Amino acid sequence: MQATATVLVYSDDSNTREQVRLASGKRPASDVPLVEFLECATPAAALKELDRGGIDVCVFDGESSPMGGMGLCRQVKDEVFNCPPVLVLIGRPQDAWLATWSRAEAAVTLPVDPVEFAATLASLLREKRALSA
Questions:
Q1: Which residue from 114, 97, 30, 80 is spatially nearest to 72, judged by alpha carbons?
Q2: Helix, strand, or coil here: 18?
Q3: Of 46, 36, 47, 40, whose CA–CA distance to 79 is shortest?
Q4: Cβ distance 17 to 46 under 8 Å?
Q5: What are phi and psi of 73, to 5 degrees?
Q6: What does the pLDDT profile of the chain (133 residues) look like in tens digits?
Q7: Helix, strand, or coil (residue 126)
Q8: Strand, helix or coil for residue 129
Q9: In CA terms, which of 20, 44, 107, 112 is 20 to 30 Å from 123?
C-alpha cells in the first residue's frame, strides 16, 4: 500500500475545506493510506493542480462560487486524462441527480457528516487502489 494519498479539495469556503479535513482525519479507514490534502479556493487553482498530476481523489464543493463543484467535475471529466475519482459535496439530498449529471463517483451532503464522509472517501481510495493494481 502506498504511504500517502493526495486528496484535492476545492471550495471557496475555508470552513468547508476544514470540515473535509476534520471529517477525514489523517486516515479515513484503517485499510487505506494516510491522506494529504491539497486545498484550492478557485477553479483555476484546482485545474492547475490536476494538470500537475498525482491526485488520488478530488472533493469538490457543489455550493462554491463562482463555479460550483458539479460544473467543475463535469469539466475535469471531459478535459483531464485519467481523471481521479470525484466526491461532490451537495447542499441537499435532492441534488444527488445533479451529482450524477456531473459524472461524480460519489456525493455527500453539507454540512459534512464525518462518518459518511470518511466512509465515502475510503471507498473511493479503495477503488482507486484496485484500479491501479
A1: 80
A2: helix
A3: 47
A4: no
A5: -60, -50
A6: 568 999 999 999 999 999 999 999 999 999 999 999 999 999 999 999 999 999 999 999 999 999 999 999 999 999 999 999 999 999 999 989 999 999 999 999 999 999 999 999 999 999 988 877 6
A7: helix
A8: helix
A9: 44
Q: Which amino acid is at 74?
A: R
103: left (phi over 0), alpha (psi -120 to 50) or beta: left
Cell of 30: 484503517
What whole-number distance in Å separates Cα of residue 58 and Cα of residue 49? Answer: 11
Q: Which three cell numbers stand for residue 74?
A: 463535469
Name residue 133's amino acid: A
